[in-house]
Amino acid sequence: MNRKISAALITGMVAGGALAGSHTILAESDRTPDVTLVPEKDLTKVPENGLGSISIELTESKDNRPRDNVKFGLYKVADVINGEYVLNDDFAQSEVDLNDIKTANDMEEVARKLSRFAYESLVTELVTDYQGKTRADQLSVGVYLLQAEDIAGYEFIAPFLIAIPTWDDVDELFLYDVDVLPKHDQLPKIAVDKVDAATGVAITSNDFQFTSYSDPECKEKLDVVAGNITDGTATFEVDYGITYIKETGAPMGYMLSDEVVKVEINDEGMYVNDSKVDPGDDLIYHYVYNNTLLGGAKTAVGTNAGLLMAIGGASIVIVGIIAIKMKRKQN
Fold first, then answer.
1. 41-57: buried (b, 16+ CB within 10 Å) or exposed (e) per residue?
2. Is the dihedral of CA 154, 278, 275, 291 positive or negative?
3. Can you give the CATH number for the domain in which 34 is found?
4. Between the chain's N and C termini, which has fewer beta carbons within 10 Å?
């Protein structure tokens, strides 16, 4: 049998019942039904001393990001006791009831909530190879939380739950060796739009540069992006977590700004300077970054400040030459 099952489907099909032997599902389903964590089967029939495994395989992203070195934390969330899922001590304070989950959406919400309590129950850390694969063996019966601790250069992966055994409602058997294809989403980008503070017009035809950092003091450099002189933007691919962006090369004729832009990507969405934003369908959020002319002078709309300075400098030189010649002539 070769069928595909995605992480969303697996996390919505965790159950117990009559032992049907070890089995591995290798592929992805085109359906994600609303099912319960504990469907119609009886958890009392699951041997509490059973063992299984979880294999993870990351599928390719649209922009072919590398799939290696993605680190997952594997946490034991609950055990099977007297025919029910019972949360371990570290997760009991979450007050969720795994036995009362009704839909796959409920399952995803519970996984996000439990991830906030994942401290001391770490079973192991898993790191993917160049094919995006990793595996954990000899796992006891129960429910496990997997969350990406470090996505490296890959995409965002929401935390998800897997149970051993997992119930396959198509073939009606229990899976003790489970292959998972986690859902992953493209991370949004932020485009810093360079704008003249006096005119509100984009600063184009003028070189500038921005740098991203991992710390608010802007000492730990992550990436350097040269501005697009055609549209006056600098676009960053930001990873899950917090990134700080600062101007490190101002357009000619403008003051270097000390403004630091805080960008955060988390389970709830995208935040810029601690305010939630909508990156839109193209997954690019535009942030207006004002620049002030040196000396505070205003420019005409569409005028290149650098050119104005060059012309002004040339005029001074010409006036100086004329003055010297006139003085010599008088002598």
1. bebeebeeebebbbbbb
2. positive
3. 2.60.40.10
4. C
